[in-house]
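Let us work through a complete example step by step.
Step 1: write down the sequence.
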Amino acid sequence: MNFTRIIHAVRNRKTRPQADPSHSVRIIGGAWRGRRVPVLAHAELRPTADRIRETLFNWLRADVAGARCLDLFAGSGALGFEALSRGAREVVFVERSAPAAANLRTQLERLGAADRAQVHARDAEAVLREPGPAFELVFLDPPFGSGALERAIAQLAGGDRLARGGLVYIEAERRAGVPVLPPGWSLLRSKFAGEVGYHLARRES
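Step 2: predict the structure and record it as tokens.
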């Protein structure tokens, strides 16, 4: 028995995150309703909870179908997958973790949705600095307490990547309270669940 090979294999399993069917997100509605999408078994990935996603997409209703969406801190991709399931024209996933981004590509292929999505394994702020078409719907669910949320909101407010009249979903830690919005943005909805606050804002047209 080659113990060196066994030890090497065990080390690889520890250092290379893999999508695990026991770690998955369930799509709440739309064409893929009830389908489970495997995600990486990684402590830093924090998918938006089912009940929060259900409430969010009840808020959005007809605003998803046909929309161009940005899942800026995609992680598990739960929000972007939900939008695609409900008829979004396109979803751009931005996730700086290369393994997590690779898993997003794999799951999009399995869902048959690769032609309606892009995955960028890059920093969110760098993507927002680049010119490109505007998004009608943006999901912001960055790591809590990182300051990334405030920076992303400022970039969206000062640039052209968020369409006039576009919607922004904001998820943050409860203790942060209701987010401070830039001039010209209005808060449409706001709720709290456990330690999470989730909010929906619109950039005025």
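Step 3: interpret the result. The chain is about 30% helix and 30% strand.
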